[in-house]
Design goal:
CATH superfamily: NAD(P)-binding Rossmann-like Domain
Helix content: 40-55%
Number of helices: 7
Number of domains: 1
Distance between the termini: 36 Å
CATH class: Alpha Beta
Length: 234
């Protein structure tokens, strides 16, 4: 059955791959974007997820177009990498406000309709960095690790209402972000990945699609790494 799906940060990279995958399967997919151009063929709403009023307005537009959101994918995120001694407080808090508190805002708003329907799927996009840590990314790692605790708390809090919460933790992926790395940096990173390559956005999308499906109805509170083995043991 076609479901109403909302993906934050769905205008590029991993978010867009998830949106295309679910739309191809027949879902009514909406995406939020903060800047840039909205993607063709998808219902797009401009929204800064650090602003609760904008989040509420975005949900209102999606609900009017597609009906109450049944599947939420919290994907939007930012980085402000810096070594601790050079990292400003704003560098730290702004990353947490987008990546972690943004997911809280989206989930809280989505839960209204899910609680009434007594069903729902929430998938949070974390990162292998959130599980294993990374020098120069204390803010990003903290925000992505926080998503795991948040998802597992929600899984316990709302599981009895038929709502599942799961986390996908991608490793280094072929996106515009990885495209900014030098060949030397990429080779060094790939050497630490057992499969020896970067992930394709479509591979992340496939894991999200499974967790959002009926086949995953008895999976909640899980963390699924899609990282080529880079984070094994975490």
């Amino acid at each position: 059955m076609s479901r109403s799906v909302l993906i934050s940060g769905g205008n590029r990279g991993i978010g867009l791959a998830i949106a295309r995958h679910l739309a191809a399967a027949g879902d009514r997919v909406a995406v939020t974007y903060r800047s840039g151009e909205p993607p063709e063929g998808l219902f797009a709403v401009q929204c800064d997820i650090t602003d609760t009023e904008q989040v509420d307005r975005a949900f209102g537009e999606v609900e009017k177009e597609h009906g109450p959101v049944e599947v939420l994918v919290a994907n939007a995120g930012i980085t402000k990498d810096q070594l601790l001694m050079r990292m400003s407080e704003d560098d730290f808090t702004s990353v947490l406000d987008t990546n972690l508190t943004g997911a809280f805002r989206l989930t809280k708003r989505a839960s209204r309709a899910m609680l009434r329907a007594k069903k729902g799927r929430v998938v949070l996009i974390s990162s292998a960095v959130g599980l294993r840590g990374e020098s120069g990314q204390a803010n990003y790692a903290a925000s992505k690790a926080g998503l795991v605790g948040f998802a597992r708390s929600m899984a316990r809090e709302l599981g009895s209402r038929g709502i599942t919460f799961n986390v996908v933790a991608p490793g280094l992926t072929e996106t515009s972000m990885s495209g900014q790395l030098s060949d030397e940096q990429l080779e060094g990173m790939k050497s630490q990945i057992p499969l020896g390559r970067l992930a394709r956005p479509e591979e992340i999308a496939a894991a999200v699609a499974f967790l959002a499906s009926d086949e995953a109805s008895y999976i909640t509170g899980a963390v699924v790494p899609v990282d080529g083995g880079a984070g094994m043991g975490h």
